[in-house]
Amino acid sequence: MTVGPIAHGGHFVARVEGQVIFIRHALPGERVVVQVTEVGKFLRGDAVEILEASPHRVAAPCPLAHPDGCGGCDFQHVSLDEQRALKAFVVREQLARLAGLDRDVLVEPVPGDDNGLRWRTRMQYVGLPRGPQGRRRGLRKYRSHEVIEVDDCLIARKDARVARRPEAVAPVATADVVSGGATIVEHVETTSGNHDFELAEDGFWQVHPGAPTALVEAVLAMLQPRPGEQVLDLYSGVGLFSAFLAKAVGEDGKVFAVESDPMAAAYADANLADFAWASAVTGRVDRMLASWQGASTDLVVLDPPRSGAKKQVVDPIAAMGPRAIAYVACDPAALARDIAYFAKVGYELADLRAFDLFPMTHHVECVALLVPAQNV
Predict the structure, then answer these.
(1) Is the confidence at residue 18, as pLDDT, over 90?
(2) pLDDT digit string (tens) for 301-334?
(3) Could you confirm whether 330 is annotated as catalytic?
(4) Which residue from 118, 184, 244, 357 could staple onto 365, CB 3.0 to 4.6 Å apart?
(5) Whole-angstrom Cα distance, residue 159 to residue 122?
């Protein structure tokens, strides 16, 4: 069959006998032989033979990146520039389909990887029985509990923190956690200053080494925080954005970080100790916003989980009348849906940047600026 466009999720779409099939290991326009791997509402399959190759196809650097191989990477068979073009297409398509917006998108590289490799600072493997050469580990096949042995994952840094789990644990090839209970320190340098962040070793932190700097600088550039302003940092984690925003608004300003995970919120409070005008609270974002009904704020940073903020968070944020909202999103579909929600309550998309924080995979990180419609 002839392969069609990319879809959200990293698959490529084609049709067979009127039925949609989502294909991995392919590229748009290619003629391929597809082996069907799942039958359901939609078919899923792998391109197992390439009859007419795309000019953007390259030899995968990892010998396990092939049908029936490791499921951790989607795009090792794609040139790096084309990977970013495909991700940009997905973001544009989601904005058009879910938010009714026609917008050009450029996916930007960030420093810290080696041509798309050696960027993961945290890895979690499945432990395998010890062999003649000692400890063995693996990663799971795509949509499978079957484990394939991995000696060297090429997207992992040589010094990546590693967690090993027993074979029975759920798939974790793209998890952003490590094992253990120790505290670690992450140093972030930006053009506006530097800061050290303490967090639990098994706590969330961006896995690409260039991600924290890129995201902080994008948020600050979009919001342009002013001395004396009040800021809400929602889904704050350990306070990455809060610390730099606190520096920007100064002691006449206020920064409130809201995080539902008690451990992360405790670390956020500690990471903000140098700023008496900044504090972290533990609580669900929607419930905290409901308790602040009638309050106002100048700026909001919104960094929700993959499922997005949803209407129950969007509406009370808009009711607080911020002059600008920076929305950090790891899922373009959830972002586009929430942009549509914001449009209904008077906030429109003023700027958007996309970053290639997860090379060789279909994932893309976006930062969107939303402002009152009359200011666009």
Answers:
(1) no
(2) 999 999 999 999 999 999 999 999 999 999 999 9
(3) yes
(4) 357
(5) 9
Structure-token pair, residue 296: 């106002």
Query: Cα dist. 5→13, 26, 30, 86, 318 in Å?
Result: 6, 10, 10, 9, 36
Q: Cα dihedral sign for 44, 48, 49, 54?
A: positive
User: What Rg, from alpha-carbon coordinates, does the chain have?
Assistant: 22
Task: Report the alpha-carbon angle 288-290-291, nearest 5.
Answer: 65
155 and 189 assigned to the same domain:
no
State how far the Cα of 200 lies from the Cα of 319, in Å rounded to an integer.
35
| Beta strands 254-259 and 230-234, pairing class | parallel
Length of the chain measured in residues: 376
DSSP state of 330: S
**Mean per-residue pLDDT for 339-362?**
98
Kindly state whether residues 193 and 282 are assigned to the same domain: yes
Per annotation, catalytic residue among 62, 153, 330, 366: 330
Angstrom distance (rounded) from CA 14 to CA 11 = 10
For the record, the structure tokens of 153 come out as 């994952």
Parallel/antiparallel/unpaired status of strands 134-140 and 147-149: antiparallel
CATH number at residue 47: 2.40.50.140
Tell me, yes or no, whether 3 and 135 share the same domain. no
In three-state secondary structure terms, 57 is strand
pLDDT band at 17 (very low <50, low <70, confident <90, very high): confident
For the chain, the domain total comes to 3
Range of the domain at 159: 120-165
